[in-house]
């Protein structure tokens, strides 16, 4: 891992969270298989109960809770952000700096509720830079940050869908599709 002293604790914590979530996911899948092998017919309810608790969902949920709290704390002393674009600029500058120690490298929009944040050296996948074998595994390491962005936007009364694309590590594009305002 090539890290600065301040990001190393976060990188280690995040890596352990991903490993823990994947282990829990594997254990739940084994439990589901044992339950089905014991003669219980596969019912939709049982399948649905196990399907909603995979590692990606868990990591995104943790990210959402952290993002919501971070969004509230970081925006506490900021004047009211009136437009979507102001909110997204706030996420790219203030929130990103507080969470990841740097600002987003680029923000693009189609002015119709779709934003793309480019981070050319994203902290959670930076240790895998140069090794294309980790490209498939990167989604596990991006679930938490996706949830973090969704949670921060929720704290600012915005519902959004957040996804990522990775063409080459450590570059990450966060795609944010605004779904509308929420009422607090």
TrEMBL record:
Subcellular location(s) of the protein: Golgi apparatus, cis-Golgi network
Gene3D superfamilies: Trafficking protein particle complex subunit 3
GO BP: endoplasmic reticulum to Golgi vesicle-mediated transport
Pfam families: TRAPP (PF04051)
Top-level taxon in the UniProt lineage: Eukaryota
GO annotation, cellular component aspect: cis-Golgi network; trans-Golgi network; TRAPP complex
Similarity field: Belongs to the TRAPP small subunits family. BET3 subfamily.
Protein name: Trafficking protein particle complex subunit 6B
């Amino acid at each position: 891992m090539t890290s600065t002293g301040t990001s190393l604790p976060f990188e280690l914590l995040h890596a352990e969270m991903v490993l823990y979530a994947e282990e829990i996911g594997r254990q739940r899948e084994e439990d589901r298989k044992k339950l089905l092998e014991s003669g219980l017919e596969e019912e939709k309810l049982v399948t649905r109960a196990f399907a909603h608790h995979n590692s990606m969902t868990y990591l995104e949920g943790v990210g959402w809770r952290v993002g919501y709290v971070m969004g509230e704390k970081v925006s506490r002393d900021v004047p009211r952000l009136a437009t979507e674009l102001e909110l997204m600029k706030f996420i790219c500058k203030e929130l990103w700096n507080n969470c990841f120690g740097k600002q987003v490298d680029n923000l693009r929009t189609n002015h119709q509720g779709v934003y793309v944040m480019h981070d050319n050296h994203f902290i959670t996948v930076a240790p895998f830079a140069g090794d294309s074998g980790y490209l498939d595994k990167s989604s596990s390491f991006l679930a938490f940050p996706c949830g973090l962005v969704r949670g921060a936007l929720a704290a600012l009364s915005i519902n959004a869908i957040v996804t990522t694309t990775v063409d080459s590590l450590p570059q990450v594009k966060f795609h944010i599709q605004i779904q509308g305002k929420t009422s607090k």
